[in-house]
Amino acid sequence: MKSLTDLDEAISIIPDPAVRIYAREAVDAYRAGALRAAIASIWVAVCSDVIEKIRFLASLEEAAAVEIERILLKARDEQDIRAMLDFENKVLEYAYDRLELISAHEKLILSRIKDDRNYSVHPSMSLSEGVQEITPELVRSHIISACTSMLCIPATVGKAVINTTFDLISQESFPATVDDAYQTLTSRSHLEKAKDSAVRGIANLILKRLFTNEERIPHPQLTRLVSALGALERIKPAVVRDLLSQKLSPMVSAKGDWAIGRLIAVLSILPENWNRVEVGVRVRVRTYCVEADLDSIRRFFLVPAAGNVPDLQDVVYANVMSQVRAEAVDLIKPHPSAFSARIALNALADSSSFDEARLTAEAVVGPNIKFVDSGIFDEFLGSIFECQRGHYNQVLDAGYSGQFFGRFAAETLSANSVKGDQWVAFYRKADAEGSVLPELEGVLAEIGLIESAADNDLVEE
Length: 461
Hints:
Elements: H1 2-12, H2 17-32, H3 35-59, H4 63-77, H5 81-89, H6 91-98, H7 104-121, H8 136-151, H9 158-170, H10 178-188, H11 196-211, H12 219-235, H13 237-253, H14 257-269, H15 279-291, H16 294-299, H17 302-308, H18 313-322, H19 325-332, H20 338-349, H21 354-365, H22 374-384, E1 388-389, E2 392-393, H23 401-414, H24 420-432, H25 438-446, H26 453-460
Antiparallel strand pairs: 1-2
Helix pairs in contact: 1-2, 1-8, 2-3, 2-8, 3-4, 3-7, 3-8, 4-5, 6-7, 7-8, 9-11, 10-12, 11-12, 11-13, 12-13, 12-14, 14-15, 14-17, 15-18, 17-18, 19-20, 20-21, 20-22, 23-25
């Protein structure tokens, strides 16, 4: 009973009413045991579905569909049976090669239905082999495959899918992250099944929106455009990378700083394109990062770009560190990375009070701990002991410090991102300066890097 329910569900979501009738006839024949009739009916449903999609796309002035419809109408009007048979034989080629309705794998699946249909209704094809056996399992598989590969999929392709998808990306409801944009595009627009030309067309529209008009793009819209570009690169990597290699430098080189800023936004999501832009453009990008004001740093994603493009880290770091401390902290909060970790630890070492140090440790350093490596930690060691206000170190002598540095050590030692001897050197220097960090001591003692104070007391006794 479950298999029949699956068939009913598959038939019920076929959007075209006429095609749904043919598919229903196939299911009815299958249930009645008329297996060859069922295969013939589901093949008729496939052919009818392609024809209906040709008509729909032709109404949208899709060039390939208009041409194919003209062939079909000529055969019908002239009652040319041979031409009609030729059209049926080519229907899957039209769907795959010309209209991009199906993938190569789906074409293969549907071709098997066509072959079995031919054996079922043309006995002359199997006279030498005897009667071909048709099993219920085979028929059910054909019906389900036809529905999932063709009949239930809307005809969005070519110009139609390009325009529809770009309109979707332009909506305020479109996601602002690459992961969510990918989910939206593949589930709502079927781009995962689209051919290269459709994805390339959408990516090209995004690039034109970014780099052909100086009119300010609101930050949320810029985020959506860049996220969509990243999602498209995930769907068709080679297509989008090739397009960006061809287009980025020419589109940006003759434009003003507004285009350089938007290029940095693209690099924040697709950093591998840094080496694909011309040297002259890269020089302009680095200069822009030096001169960018606070608004531009935020609007064009300079912090995440620096986190992903090593050649930008020194200039963006210098710019961010030149900002007021509170502003620098706000700039890195949304973008955890090794680059942000370096700034976060610098901000922690620059704390001017116990409360400021605690808030920085929890809200800024905490999310970046997993990105700290030995080099970043060594830089931190060079500055943390200078955070002195009067008799107290504003970080090491705060009440929360033992717990925080215990967690810090546990996470970095577990990940092997900071060496044990670095933590031992930090602990001993802090201890020598009178800072008490019992939780850190416990972590280091537990893994045998030091002896705990309790163990030393036992030895003395």
